[in-house]
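---------- Forwarded message ----------

FYI, see the Sugar ABC transporter substrate-binding protein record below. Original note from H. follows.
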Amino acid sequence: MRRHGTSRTTLTWTALAAAAALTLGACGDGGTKEPQGPEGSTAAPRVQLPKLPGEKLEVAAVWTGPEQENFTKVLKEFEKRTGATVTFVPAQDPIVTFLGTKIAGGAPPDVALLPQVGALAAAVQNKWVQPLGPEAAAQLDANYSKGWRTLGAVGGTQYGVYYKAANKSLIWYNAKAFEAAGVKPPKTWKELITAADTLSASGTPAVSVAGADGWTLTDWFENIYLSQAGPEKYDQLAKHQIKWTDDSVKQALTTLGELFGRKDFLAGGQSGALATEFPKSVTQTFTGGDRPAAAMVFEGDFVAVNIAQTQAKVGEDALVFPFPAVGGKAPVVSGGDVAVALKPSKGAQALLTFLASPDAAEIHARQGGFVSPNKAVDPAAYPNAIQRDIAKALIAAGDDFRFDMSDQAPAAFGGTPGAGEWKALQDFLANPSDVAGTQAKLEADAAKAYGH
């Protein structure tokens, strides 16, 4: 999956109690609801869709691999109910550039899923997207909290449906590797570093870092920064009201360097991490029995999709704990992809209506590695207790959240491969001792992207 979603969201501390349920207690599989109807849909559809025989639609998103395959099952159900034909169009990062090219060529997709707040704002500013129709808006009003509805609006007009969310403050671990080293899930950053030392001394590198994908590095930084600097500073940095040369950024990078600076802590060392893409970072953590390439991997609930590509079982071989507290409170970061219509067609609005319904989300939820902000989704749709608890924590947060800072930033800084924050943090991973140089580069790139 692509990072940020996912447009990541930072949930406030009230969600922590729910998030804490993701620890050792949430290991079982119990209570999975059996699918009913085609592709695991419910037997009685809860949303009525128009008949669209012969209509052809295109849907663009940056999803690949299992994530794309699972979403295709949702689209297949839409086809069955409406008679339309839907084609998935793989998009590249940054998606605004991809869509701009399509629109300039006169061939925009009907619907796109945007993984950044900045992308939605840019699409509205460019007059690419259509407001939600009454049927889609009715589903949104019925199934989503005000906070999630607001996130899909620009200037008071509703444009988008947050179809997919993610809890981005999770560390997944190989149960056998932890057991072999005698390590327990850490609750603080200091305990994490101690555990990493013990794991590495036992012969298993502590962490698999997907350094080839810069978005994962922004997630590392943001979790540390939120916990260490606190929400006020976090909001200020997200808006570039304070500079990246601020002492709080120095502290966060120095803390991150405690992990990234230890070659023995990282699978393949710094150079190996920089050559590792996200899917491999997960699969190499859950293959090799009790001697995997690494004992832990950091990222969101969508990690479960990639674990499914191995022989490991979520809840048994693959367990999870919340991102450890660096400061007084552990961070809770989430995100989401917002679906928007790029064409004023009946089919595009019908698909948005479907994506705003629990029917679509439950089909996707049964596949694993997916969390919906739709509060009408039956928790039993999630395939195991771990994913159910992740979903419950998201819903329990209600309207108390703020968006991830890199997703609030202009795409040139916070969402472009090989540029801005992604590239600066990759350079930092290569040389974690250069905190001042990293700060200077981050500030120069941010000032240029924000226009000041």
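H. also flagged this: The first helix runs from residue 16 to 19.
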